[in-house]
Amino acid sequence: MQYIDPIMVIDNDPGLCTLISAILTDNGYAVKTFNVPYEGVAEFKNGNYSLVISDVKMPGMNGIQVLEHIKRINPTTPVIIITAHATLDISIQALRKGADDMILKPFESGELMLRVNNVLKNNALLRENIKLKEELFGRFRFENIIGISKGIKDVLDKVQKIAPTDIPVIIIGESGTGKELIAQAIHYNSLRKDKPFVALNCGALPHNLLESELFGHKKGAFTGALEDKTGLIESADEGTLFLDEVGNLSMEAQKGLLRFLQEKEFRRIGDNKNIKVDVRVISATNVDLLSAIRDNKFREDLYYRLNGISLHLPPLRERVEDIPLLTSYFISQQNNKLHKNCAGFTAEAMQVLTAYAWPGNIRQLKNVVDAAYALSNDKYIDVDIIEQFVKSATKDIEGIGGDYYVALANFEREYFKNLLHQCKNNVEEAAKKAGINMVTLYRKIKKYGLKKEETL
């Protein structure tokens, strides 16, 4: 079988990437290599790959985490894990997470090609099956939910368990955490996936229009009702109704919704005929509904009807390890859209991004990344660009009085002082040795007040 999709190779060792690429290319395969695992996984979402080959031991994101994320996005894409030490623990982890094969370093080119060809051959039928399924149901499984943190993985584990059921779900999380994406993941992994997914933002409409949107109305039911209107509950028949910001429903709308959940039928406003439908209800809120119940702003009986199970989405500040992966994905999206080749953020810029509290969560992060991308003309987006949008982040880093941050600042000052001394104040040479650009080094010189005589 001829594979036109490239093979992805992820390894932080550029030499090994080059070697594997050369072997595969010589055997007629297209190859794309990545030395930063976050960038490889982010790129995987935006393209089709026939196989992923990943090393186990890598900084930031190890091979097992790469494997987990690839299989979450597309369970049928084969993954080969490379390791220098095939311990029993690593082998069991890799196999449990869905690895298709493992190769022990060092390896011969013949062995690599044998493993690659066998995996691709065995996977051919699965590839055909997934294409058929995608034509039927679309590609939404877990692609749009990005993260390797424990918090987000715990949520997805629960989603996989509850999706096939009809149990009502309340998704609890701050604004911008991706509550609707989780609701979509539940729907598109359920038995209702080929039926409608209908969403209503209960906070986006005035209270007097919510009931009409939810239940529909008959012509002449009220001033302005010039024709019959089908409500969202009716539109979602046999599918899923997602009520975002459900805490904003008026007490009258809550009463009607409760009646529907109890009886499985409702009436359009101004009608005297009951309509029976089969709908799964998923709701979401960024407010404490139990407090709203105590304040008589939310019905307790409705709460227990909606709350078959609760999913708590962690805010971005509690999943800091996901920020490099999220930013890589957003950068990859922009690269594909604008046909550019931005490699991401400098180490200093990423430090700012991970130190910031992100009150607007993922939505805010995406907006910042997109804006920074638009302003930068360099291969790497530097901290100067980021500070235009999250200025408080650098204050957070520099203003913390803990011993660690004091020690870090002292280390940086001495490091750059000695480096410049070694390079005889040649900033270009010093920046090259430090692996940073000259602008960043000039900023460090200014930050630590390094004078020429100190470094000579």
Low-pLDDT residue spans: 133-140, 392-405
For CATH, the homologous superfamily of the largest domain is named as: P-loop containing nucleotide triphosphate hydrolases
Any idea what the radius of gyration is?
27 Å
Shape: globular
Beta-strand content: 5-15%
Which CATH class of the largest domain is shown? Alpha Beta
Count of individual domains? 4
Average pLDDT number: 84
What does this structure look like?
- With 456 residues, the protein is α/β, with parallel strands linked by helices.
- 50% of the residues lie in helices and 13% in strands.
- The chain has four domains: 7-137, Response regulator (Rossmann fold); 150-312, 3-Layer(aba) Sandwich (Rossmann fold); 317-399, Orthogonal Bundle (Helicase, Ruva Protein, domain 3); 403-455, Orthogonal Bundle (Arc Repressor Mutant, subunit A), CATH 1.10.10.
- The protein has a five-stranded parallel β-sheet with strand order 2-1-3-4-5, with helices on both faces. Strands 7-10-13-6-14 form a five-stranded parallel β-sheet. A two-stranded antiparallel sheet has the order 8-9.
- Strand 11 (265-266) and strand 12 form a beta hairpin.
- Helix 13 packs across helix 15 (361-375) and helix 14 crosses helix 17.
- The termini are far apart.
- The relative contact order is 0.08.
- Mean pLDDT is 84; it is low at 133-140 and 392-405.
